Write a sequence for this structure.
């Protein structure tokens, strides 16, 4: 299945890198990664392919990252 993650966070150094490391640790195929940071806030949209249980595991892992305020997941 293809999933779309929308992450809102406080803009911090290496935020994008930490998100990518989380995805890499779960060994998923990332189809698209887009991030924007301005005025202390960051927005990241990730489209990836994985099984349903792994998608929700990734959501939980993203919430554990420092500065992440919200994570929403939908089927793409």
């Amino acid at each position: 299945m293809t999933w779309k993650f929308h992450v809102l966070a406080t803009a911090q150094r290496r935020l994008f890198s930490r998100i990518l490391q989380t995805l890499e640790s779960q060994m998923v195929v990332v189809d698209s990664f887009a991030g924007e940071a301005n005025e202390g806030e960051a927005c990241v949209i990730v489209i990836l392919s994985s099984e349903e249980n792994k998608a929700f595991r990734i959501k939980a892992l993203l919430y554990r990252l420092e500065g992440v305020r919200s994570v929403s997941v939908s089927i793409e």
About this structure: The longest helix spans residues 52-63. Residues 17 and 23 are 10 Å apart (CA to CA).
